[in-house]
Amino acid sequence: ATLAPNFLNQLLESEQDEGQVCSKVLASLQREQASRGKHDRLNTFTIMCKMADQTLFGLVEWARNSTLFKELKVEDQMVLLQSCWSELLVLDHLCRQVTYGKQGCIYLVTGQQIEVSTIISQAGVTLSSLVSRAQDLVSKLKALHLDRHEFVCLKYLVLFNPDVKSVQNRRQVEQTQERVNRALMEHTQQTHQGHSDKFGQLLLRLPEVRSISLQVEEYLFQRHLQGDLPCNSLLTEMLHTKRS
Amino acid sequence: KKKDNALLRYLLDKDDTV
Is A237 on the interface with B (CB under 8 A)? Predict the structure, then answer.
């Protein structure tokens, strides 16, 4: 039981500082805008894609900095990330909302806030439904009082998925998943003794994250087919590789 | 055969010490 807190702290070590992530994404967007003329400004959707793209770079960096992930061969690292990138993006978004988001607003990685009602009134049916689903999940997670330790465990559970096809070292991925699962269970039991099934409640959110992430991919792919997605991005590469 | 994600491979493989 005394080993679990150390293990959780080890998982937290590779977490990125929100302020640094925000600065990096902002700097990248500003570089992009500065390189364009007055009549060549990016539209809102393209800016959102570039924000997601930069966040994705950050998530790959996060995985790379993790001791447990480093133990895997690059081939396995590739298939795991290729399989869960959209879930990691959704989880990252959810955590940001739980931590910083105000009621009725979406908090972006750049620190900007957008009212949900504005998005719903301007976006199409699919995007509106996605935003609503994500906001419902944010409410559920807020009600569960998700903490940093629990959030990082969910990220690891999504990343170390032994069910991913063509993983070579399945045993190691499975062992890591089991270890994180146990640490999460012990943590929820110790810190939320009044809440008898917080662990179960947290795990039940993962299929919802998965479902939203699949809808995100489908939406992005449709926009890609319409030629709306910026080229030469990690986001497009992930989408392409998964679909090919 | 599946397409290889060259950008992801580069990001995972790159040497940060140089």
Answer: yes
